[in-house]
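2 proteins. here.
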Amino acid sequence: MNNTDYITNQDIMLLLAKRIKEYRLAARMSQKEMAEKSGVSLATISHFEQGVSQNMTLNNFISLLRVIGMEQRIIDLLPELPMPPLALKQINKLIPKRVRRNDNDTKS
């Protein structure tokens, strides 16, 4: 899965499941412990990690991220726009296109 241009939704779900499992194991946590801490059923976690069920809800996925301490990373998926396009257009209207100088401004 190195070429992200051709990655399918299924491939992404399998990759996320693999990563969740890796983080869970790195935290030395069983699926049962993760289920208890997250409120997501043991069967859902098991099926997700095995790739059997790929209908993980976003709510459940965020709950799993919280357990492994990665919930803030979901914000990285869709970062905030630096400035909404409409606001930028309004600001550009206020910027002068040229500067006029008086004779008094040029004398020092």
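next one coming up
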Amino acid sequence: MSLPYTLIIKEIHDESGKYFYGTYAELDGCQSTGDDVAELLENMNEARSGWLEVKLEHGDPIPEPKDDYSGKILLRIPKSLHQQLAVKADLEGISLNQYMLYKLSK
């Protein structure tokens, strides 16, 4: 029940007002809402427990949490963009990898 599933939280603003929506990436259909993040987390724990309980009762397969993130990606970009990034990294006195990580984390 406490496996590290990927929780996705979105803040929603619509005709019913502001609320938070959550779903687990690996658990199709396991979702809930809450007026704030604390309430959403409580509701998501309850939803996950119920979702898993139903799957176990029916003998349905339960997916494992995603755990295949190595921290390494291969990305092809235009030469002109590569040059721009490399020049900016050089001006900052850091590696291209560090510069790109900084920019992606913003």
